[in-house]
Structures are given as structure tokens and as C-alpha cells.
Design a protein that fits this description.
Blueprint: H1 2-5, E1 12-16, E2 37-44, H2 55-70, E3 78-81, E4 85-88, E5 91-102, E6 108-116, H3 141-159, H4 165-175, E7 182-186, E8 191-199, E9 205-208, E10 214-217, E11 221-224
Antiparallel strand pairs: 1-2, 2-6, 3-4, 4-5, 5-6, 7-8, 7-11, 8-9, 9-10
Helix pairs in contact: 2-3, 2-4
Length: about 230
């Protein structure tokens, strides 16, 4: 955000070997030991405001493709958990946090922060976690970052500031966990249950609840009956 405020044009990555104040959604801490990948991408005015909600799905798809590229043996065991967590054998292996700020000239600066458990993972009481090393694969963060930077650029081109989201949506659904399954959606003050039926053209989760009524969910934590844990 400092780069953006100082006039950076964006399309720039910032990486770290470790973080001392890593954070996840809703102000939660993100454990950031050396050996994992911590990378943030700065975008300036990436899309019209009404298309911005689809960006997290672009990011998660790009990360999924990068992971499969460097660790193809896990292609059948790696899934996306709405909207942008990656699950390896049903356990959280990465998290993505998007933050936005309005610049002085009115444009929007968006920072896409990615944390991937290459070597280490936290004991997360909210959702089971794992790392590539835990699953028997030695993945260097530099190797994954090279694949991620390339994959992200490719998916952003396809997304085309939101105009190409239909292509992203199709590929995202092919890799998603929980479509057609019963899930619990937890908000800050209540939770609801239903069936995850789809994502719409805005990237919102479509939930079929009581009386077969379908509603859209723009932001929440979801969890599956099999794991009993929340997304972080």
C-alpha cells in the first residue's frame, strides 16, 4: 500500500522469507515461519467496482494451477474452498487475503496476499491445516513463487478486468470442494445451513436452504460436515 500511495503503477510482487505480523481474514493471525511462501501482488484499478468481487476466485484458480504445476502428484487431492482457500487432502494448505484502499486520485489499490504452507503449518483450531512437507513433498517457496507469478499473470489476462469471468468460473467450479454438498455458512453473528449449489456471475456462493430457497452469500466462513472446522 505504501508503494501504491507513492505512485507505483502496480503489477509488482513483494515477497518475504518470514513475516512478524502476518494476518488472515477478520484480523486473525497468520503464522509465518521461514520455509513457506509469503507473496503479495499489488494491482492498481484492476477492474470496475462491480467486478471486483470475482477477483478472489481468479487468485485461487491461479494458485491452484501453480501448485499442480510444481506438484502434479497432488492434482487429484487439491481443491479450492470458497472463495479462495486451497485444501490438500481436505486440509488447509494456503490462505489468500485481498485488501483494498482508495488512492488520492480515486483509483483503487488492491493487495493480494498469499501465504502457502510449503514446509510448516500451524495448529489451527478453526480448520485442519497441513503443508506440502507434511504430505511428503519437499517444495521450495522460490519454486512455487515462479509458477505462481506466471499463473497469476495468465489468469488475470483471461479475467480481463472481469469481462472474462465466465471462463474463470467454469474452471474454478471444476476444482472446487463442496459443490452439491451440505455446508454451514457462518457469519459474524449467526450461521445458516444449506446446500452449496453454485457460484453466480459475481462470484457469490449460491446456497439452497429451507423450502428450496436459494440465496447468495458474498462473504462468510464455510465448513463441511466431514471436517467440522471453519475456514480461516
Amino acid at each position: 500500500m505504501e508503494l501504491a500511495a507513492n505512485g507505483d503503477a502496480g503489477q509488482v510482487w513483494v515477497t518475504a522469507e518470514e513475516q512478524v505480523q502476518g494476518k488472515a481474514r477478520r484480523g486473525r493471525a497468520w503464522v509465518s515461519e521461514r520455509g513457506n511462501l509469503y507473496a503479495s501482488l499489488l494491482l492498481i484499478a484492476p477492474s470496475p467496482a462491480d467486478k471486483l468481487a470475482t477477483l478472489p476466485l481468479v487468485v485461487s484458480l491461479a494458485l491452484h494451477k501453480a501448485m499442480v504445476q510444481v506438484a502434479p502428484k497432488f492434482s487429484q487431492n487439491l481443491n479450492i474452498k470458497w472463495p479462495n482457500d486451497l485444501l490438500l487432502f481436505g486440509k488447509k494448505v494456503s490462505g489468500i487475503l485481498l485488501e483494498a484502499s482508495v488512492l488520492k486520485d480515486g483509483r483503487l489499490a488492491v493487495v493480494i496476499g498469499c501465504g502457502i504452507n510449503c514446509q510448516h503449518y500451524p495448529e489451527n483450531p478453526l480448520y485442519p491445516a497441513t503443508s506440502f512437507r507434511e504430505e511428503g513433498f519437499d517444495l521450495e517457496p522460490q519454486t512455487l513463487f515462479a509458477a505462481l507469478a506466471s499463473s497469476m499473470a495468465a489468469e488475470l489476462r483471461i479475467w480481463a478486468e472481469g469481462a472474462g469471468f465466465s471462463i474463470i468460473r467454469k474452471e474454478w467450479l471444476e476444482r472446487a470442494r463442496g459443490v452439491g454438498e451440505a455446508i454451514t455458512v457462518r457469519f459474524s453473528d449467526h450461521e445458516i445451513e444449506g446446500t452449496f449449489v453454485d457460484i453466480d456471475e459475481d462470484g457469490f456462493l449460491m446456497l439452497r436452504g429451507e423450502n428450496q430457497v436459494v440465496q447468495s452469500v458474498s462473504a462468510a466462513d464455510i465448513f463441511f460436515a466431514q471436517t467440522g472446522g471453519l475456514g480461516a
